[in-house]
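ASSEMBLY PREDICTION REQUEST
Request ID: AP-0331
Submitted by: J.K., bench scientist
Number of chains: two
Total residues: 958
Priority: normal
Notes: Please return the full assembly, not individual chains.
Input sequences:
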Amino acid sequence: MANAYIPALAQMRAIKLARIRRERLLPSRGAVVVQVGNRVGALDIIAKSNAMGHLRSIPLARYLKTNEATLPKYLVKKPGEDIQARDIIAAKPEFFGTMRRVFRAPGAGRVAALYGAWLTVELMDTPFELKALYRGTVRDVMPRLGAVIEATGALVQGVWGAGGEGFGVLQKMVDAPDAVLGEEKIDVAARNTVILAGAGITETALRRAAQEHVAGVIVGSLQPRLRALVQELGLATIATEGLGERPMATPIFELLASLTGNETVLNVPGVKRGTARPEAFIPILMPSNTPDAASPLPTLLAEVSAPVRVVAGTHAGELGKIGEVPDRPRALDSGALAWGAEIELASGGRTFVPWENLELIG
Amino acid sequence: MADSQKSESLLIVDIGSTTTKIGLVDNVAGEYRFIASGAAATTITPPDADVLAGVRDAIRQIEARTQRRLLTVEGQLIAPERAGAQGVDALVAITSAPQPLRVAIVGLSREISLASAINAINGTHAVVVATLALDAIGGRWLPVRLPQEAQLDPKVVMTILQDPAVIAAETLARANPEVIVLVGGVDGGATTALYDIANLVASIVASSDENARPIIVFAGNSAARAQLANHLGTLTQLRPVDNVRPTLEAENLAPLRHELEALYTERKITWLPGLNTLASWTNVPITSASRAFQNVIRFLARRWNLNVIGADLGSAATTLVTARGEQSTRLVRADLGIGYGLERLLEQTGIERVLEWLPLEMNPDEAYARCLNHALHPHALPMTRDEVYLMHATARLALATAAQGVSMDGFDTVVITGSVGAYNSNYGALALLILDALQPHGIFSLTVDPLGLAPALGGLAAENPAAAASVLERDGLLTLGTVIAPTSRNRDGQIDLRIKVQPSGSGVINLEVVHGSLELVPLTTGQKATIEVRPAAGVDLPQVKRGVFKADIEGGALGLIIDARGRPLNLPTDPVKRRMQVQRWYWDIGGEVANG
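STATUS: Completed
Returned structure:
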C-alpha cells in the first residue's frame, strides 16, 4: 500500500447542526447598518447601497446641433450634480434667444461626465438592501462592503441553483426522495414557504408555486429546460443532485424532512466558476446559556471511512464510505486508467470509483 | 532556485481550469525521461482559493508513487535536488485556469477592421462581450451585436432608446469589458471618424470608477495615435499597437494578439490566488497553456520538417495550433470546452448535433441534462458506455467548431492533447474522434498526448530545451498510426484506393479500399512497413505523384488507418441508420466501448 494516496476531494455540506460563518456583501459599495455583536434575523437589513447606477452616454453635441467646443457653456447641470427625471441638463438658445433647444434627463441620477461631444449620465437603479439572511450574530463588519454573520443550524448545499434568495417555513411536499412534485399539491397553504420536493418538480408546479408566492424550492434535480423559468419567475431554487431527474439522496431528504416547520433560507449566489455553492440553511436556536454548543463546521478529511458521494457513472448520486484504496490505477470501461478507491455504498455493495468522481459529504 | 543550466530533475506543472497536472522529469542514464505524474482538482475557487493547494496535492501524489520527497513538511518545494533523490532542480508552470479577458471591440467597419480584430482576438484567451461598429461612410452606428450571455435586457434598451449611438454607448457600458480594442482606418487614411468613436469610448471610460476602468488597446490607423493619446491616455491605460488592418488587403494580427496575451498574463494569470508563491518556485515566467502548446507544435514542425496541426481540448477552452515551416497560427476558443465550457458549446451547436455522433439512442433531454451535469462536475471521468460516447460526441463538436474555416489539407502530423486522451487506452475511439472532428485530408500520422502534459513540455522548453525535446520524443507523444484519407468523387462501394502493405517480417497485404469504408491494418509500435498507394480515378490524395505514393512508415498503437469515408463526412439523415453507421465506424477501428 506504499503508493496509496488519497487526494483532496471536493466537498459538499449536509449537516444537521453546525456553527457557520457567512460573508454577506453588497454588490457595490454602500453603508453597513449593523455593528459587531448585533443579533440579526433573516430579513433584517444589514447594509444598503445606492450606487447601482448604470451609465448612459448621449451624443449631446449632435442633439443640440452644436460642436463639442461650445458644448460646456450650454450645460445647465455640471458633472457631479444630481439630476431628477426630466430635469433640463443642457439648453441652447436658438432664433436669437426666442426659443431653446433642450436636453432633459432620461431618469434620476447624476451627471457623470462631459467628454468631447458626449455627455454621460449615471442613472440610479432601485436602491439595494442587503438582508442578513442567516439568523445569528454579526461577527465582523467590513465598512461599506458588508458583514460576517455567525449562525447555528442545519446546512444543506446544492449542486445547482438559481432565482436568488428565499426565506420561509420549510414544508415537505412529497413523501419520498424519488417523487416528482406536481401542481396539485401546491395551494394557498404553500404561500411564503420553502417547499421540499423529491426527484423533480414539473413546469406547472413551478408556475403554481410562483402564483402562490412560494418563497423557495429545494429539489433533487431540475429539468434543464426549466432553468430559464426559475430565473424568469425569480423563484429561489436549489437542486441537491444536479439537472435532469435524479432522486434526492435519501439522507439529505430525511434531514430536510425532519426540519419541516422551521424557518429556512435559500442562498443562491449563482453557478458561475468561482462562486460558492447554493445552500439551504435552517437556523436552530440554541439555549441562551449555551450559545456555542454547536460545533463549527467539521473539517472533512479525505481518509478511509470518510463519507462520500458519487457524482458520475452508474452510481451517480449514491452515498457511501471510502473503503480500500488500491495502490495502482485501474482501467475503466472507457479505456481510461484512473486512481480511485473502493467505495462501500450505503445501498449495499462495493464499487471502484475514480477520485475525480467523488466528493466528501458531511 | 537552482541554476537553470544544471536542472537535471524538474517538475512540470499545468494548472488547468479544472485539473492541475504535474509531471516529474529526471535524467535517467543520460536521457531526460518522464518518471511519474499526479493530478488534482485546480483550487482557485472557494473554499480553497489557492492554486498551491492543488499543486501540493498533485506533488504529494508523485511523492507517494515514487517514494521521492519533493515538499518540505511546511509544503515548500525542495529545490535544488538534494542527496538521496530529494526535491528537484527546477519547476516550470503553465496555466489555462483564469477566466478569459472580457474584450469589447469598437471600430469603424464591421466587415474590415472589426473582422480583423476578431481574427486577432480568436488567437488569445479572450471572449468578445460586444462589438460596436460606426459605419465610416454614413457616420451611423450599426446595430449592436452581443454574445448570447451578455447581461443586457434588450427590451429595456430598445424601447427607451432609439438612437443607435446611444444604444451603442449603453451597450459598451453594460458589457463591462476589461479591455476595449479600438480599431479602424487603414494606415495613412482619414482619422475623423476614429475621433468620433474615441469620444464615445472616452465618455464611458471617464464615467467609470477610476479603479475599474477598462484598458484601451488601439490597433487602428497609426496616424491617429498621438491625438488618441490626448483623448484617452489621460483617462486610462492606452496601449497602442500596430494597425490590425494596415491596408484594405492585408491583416496584421500579431501585434494585437501579442498585446492581449501580455494583458492576459498581467491581468489574469498573475492574479490567480497563490500564484505569487508558485512563481517563487520557478526561474521562468508562468505562461499561458496555449502559448506553451504552440511551442510544442512549432518544435515538432522544425525538428522533423513537418506540417503539424495540434488541438488542445480543454475543459473551458479549445486551442488549435498549426505550424508549417516557420509559419505558425494559434486559435483559442475560450467559448468551447468539454467541461466548464460545455454549456456554451451546446448553446452554439444544439444537443441534436451531439446526438448525431452517438452510436446509441438517447433522449435529447436526457443527453442535455447529462452534459450539463458534467459541466457541474467537469473533473468527473465518464464511467458508463453512454457517458463515454457522450463525451466523445461533445469533444467532436468542440474540435469541429474550433476548426471551422481552418484548412485541413497538407498536414503531416495531427496531435491531440487534453483530458479526453490522457491515460486512455481506447485508441480506436480516440482516433475516430479526431478523424470525425477535424476530417484531415491526405496522408498523415495521428498522435495523442498520453500523459496530458504536452503543453507543459512547451513550458519546460523555456527552462531546459534539451529536457523538453527528449521527453517529448521519448514519452510525451504516442503515435496511433498513419492515416490515409483521400477525397473522392466515387460512390459508396466503388474502389477508391489500391494499397500494397509490406510489413517487415511478414507477407504482403494487398487491399482494395472501397469508398465509404474505414479500415485498419494492424502495425505495432516500432514495426516498419512499406506502403504503395494507388488512387482510382476521381480520388485525390495530395501526396500522390504520377499515380502512386510510396513510403516507409512505422506502426503505432493502432497501425495503418485507411479513412475512405470521403470529405466532408456525410452522416445518414435517418437516425437509426446514422446510429448504425457511427457504431460500424467504432467497430471498424476497434474503438467500441465496453458496457459498464
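REVIEWER COMMENTS: Chain A has three domains: 11-22+152-283, 54-123, 299-361.
SIGN-OFF: pending second reviewer
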